[in-house]
Amino acid sequence: MTLLTHERYCDELIRETGLLRAVLAGADLSVTVPTCPDWNLGDLVRHVGAAHRWAEIIVRTKSLVEVPDDDVPGVPGPGNDEPAALEAWLAEGADLLAATLREAGPDAESWTWAWEQRAGFWARRMVHETVIHRADAASAAAVPFETDPEVAADTVDEWLQIVAFSAACGDPEAQELRGAGRSIHLHATDAPGVDAEWLIEFGDEGFTWRRGHEKANVALRGPLSDVLQVFYRRLPSDSERVEVLGDAGLLDFWLARASFA
């Protein structure tokens, strides 16, 4: 696995936020988000904007402990769901975060909830947070979703790390992703020049993964943006936009237990 550069993550944060803002243009912010049914589109935008500001203050203050939401300036966002105000607030937060990340550099010490304690974690995490929630927004607004192939592939890699981390931290569902002799292959059909295939192998102690084209018990094939959405549980595995070959039950077993605990 090769990470994108820190500068690339900062650039993609701005680009992905701009694409999310474009989804909002003319959209009904009161519509329910099908993939996050407890939220409407306005709620989703506020969640993303708040996450950007939360990560920004952690990095900027060099905090080594979690920062409470109440200590983050601007987290509530504008007082109404007027689209122009929400768009401006969202853009401002992304700009602030990117600037802070660039100034800090990837190796600056920083609290995170995960496997590394450095600012580079937040650069990567906030790009993928924005990518996935843009997919949610696109679903709510009934518009197409696509993203840069290198970013999408890195989003898959990070999700595998998150699920493995959840299992290591004791999440009971993620810990069920074990059992030697079973494997899953992810195969993007539209990403020339990008290594966008993965083999996930179950073992007695958990699972491992690597990029590559190898046979497995089940294969999930389709455009990379759609494979990503299925793998992140944003599209059902029986969507006509992807193809499942082999043991579909094993893929569903994974999808039911892969969590962000």
From TrEMBL:
Cellular component aspect of the GO annotation: plasma membrane
The keyword Isomerase is assigned to this record: yes
GO molecular function per UniProt: isomerase activity; metal ion binding
Keyword terms: Isomerase
Domain of life according to the entry: Bacteria
Coiled coil regions in record: none
Residue ranges constituting the Mycothiol-dependent maleylpyruvate isomerase metal-binding domain according to the UniProt record: 12-138
Keyword Coiled coil: no
Listed Pfam families: MDMPI_C, MDMPI_N
Family matches, as InterPro entries: DinB/YfiT-like, Maleyloyr_isom, MDMPI_C-term_domain, MDMPI_metal-binding
Domain MDMPI C-terminal: 150-252
NCBIfam families associated with the record: maleylpyruvate isomerase family mycothiol-dependent enzyme
Name the record gives this protein: Maleylpyruvate isomerase family mycothiol-dependent enzyme
Naturally occurring in which organism (per UniProt): Streptomyces beijiangensis
